[in-house]
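[job 0412] stage=fold_complex status=start
inputs:
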Amino acid sequence: MREVGILGVGAHRWGKFPNKTYVEIGYDACKLAIEDAGVSWTDIQAMTCGIAYIGGVGGLVAGHQVAYALGETGIPILNVFNACATSTSAMREAYLLVASGCHDIVLALGADKSPDGFLSGNSQDPLDPEYVRFRMVGLSNPAYWALECRRRMEVYGTTEEDLARIKVKASKAGALNPNARFRRQYTLEEVLLSPMVCDPLRLLEICATSDGAAAVILASMDKVRQHTSKPIKVAGVSLASSKFGDPAVRVLTVSAPADASASAPFMSESVIAAQMVYEQAGIGPEDLDIVELPDNSSWHELVYMENIGLCKRGEAERLIRAGATEIGGKVAVCPSGGASSFGEVVPAQGLLQVHENVIQLRGQAGPRQVDGAKVAFSQVYGMQGNNSAVLLVT
Amino acid sequence: MMIPTQKMVPAMEGLFTWPSEAPALVGSRCRSCGTYAFPAYFTCINPACKEKRVEQTTLSRIGKLWSYTIHCYAPPPPFKFTQPFSPFGIGVVELPEGLKVLGMLATVDLNELKVGCEMELIIDKLCDDDDGNELLTWKFAPSAGGSS
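[job 0412] stage=fold_complex status=done
writing structure:
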């Protein structure tokens, strides 16, 4: 396997764009990435793309639709879906295509538009657990998160202020990011006064759903070095699923095996995916300068900090209180503003994190720049125990 | 004018025994390794289990509250509710079989809910349907005996 690096990145601004299709949004992200890479679309030898699951049957071939707009060139195009880990799953395929020597330049894309409000299930089959979950219990995604969060509060003494602090931190960073959808800076009081959605999680502590896109072009490290004086290497990219018996309740289900562990719930797939990239890179969590996590809610940020080894179980609150994870702190967590400031685009958010980390490692992040950042980690999680991590180094 | 009596009907069949003096959830149990599931599942999900001999079984009616939330906004379809929407509780209850089961709660009063407190299964109203029937689901209620 040969070394793989980042040739270019591009992202469409995230928000609500009623006058644009997801294909146009994805097209714009690709154009920016191609321009950033200093190549042309006809140089791209293969493409991997997240399935735009809101985009109907056409969205199943989102990559082909965007390639149609860019001009069909006959290259292999693979469309993949892995819930919120979709776009970094696409990136992992792109990585493997380059690392194996199969192709030299491969583009990975995620793009979609999201409906307003709670994400819902599509299944009408009463035998499907997903149907049961909504129909009989009213379990939205934030309800699962709230249940895990309440359990954490019980086990570790997490306070409502801790949950609110995470939003305050995210909003400070998001206010500095021109690509973010929400750029208002919130105070602790404002967050604590926002409406309760699923107790103990409030409206401002749960990410919105957005429209957006991000694209990354990967190439062999030799080619990347020729193109730029500040090459960024993909030191690790992983994909993991969960292990039976861990203490998390899988979103989609209405039951889970009890676990004997004394800790608050965590996700085994996140721990495994992080370990995989650390081993690939020979780097540990203590070496990270920047971390983009799946902060779908304030609870997520706490548990994922621990999953990836930034601190021991039950210690994330202490780091947040000390400001250790702010820009300028010991390790910047979600210096992009995170999903909290962008909103989630299920098949694109992993590549948005990669885009943000590349901008940081190049020193191009302007007022939100993490000084001297050399090692950047990102992780997204998907429902039903699925996770992907990316480790970039310069 | 005669007002027809509202019929009480499970919102989905096969998930709990009803009508019954002591209704119970219908789950499954692996006779080889003892892994439980709810709703009843077609196989055993324990990767270490080789034989996977699954049988249907009713589950304990009493368990301990593992966690809880109050859902303050209407969830998306296929959830249905009778207008106007009012907030409802959701809990995770750990059963003695070694299974955590999620379900609605019979209360939205946070003072009645405490992690570890004893909860009892009841069958209760989910919503009305278009034909005037009362649709039922399973819920957990704090046990009359209080916390354990």
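[job 0412] summary: The beta strands of chain B are 8-10, 26-30, 36-37, 54-58, 62-71, 88-95, 99-105, 118-128, 134-142.
[job 0412] exit 0
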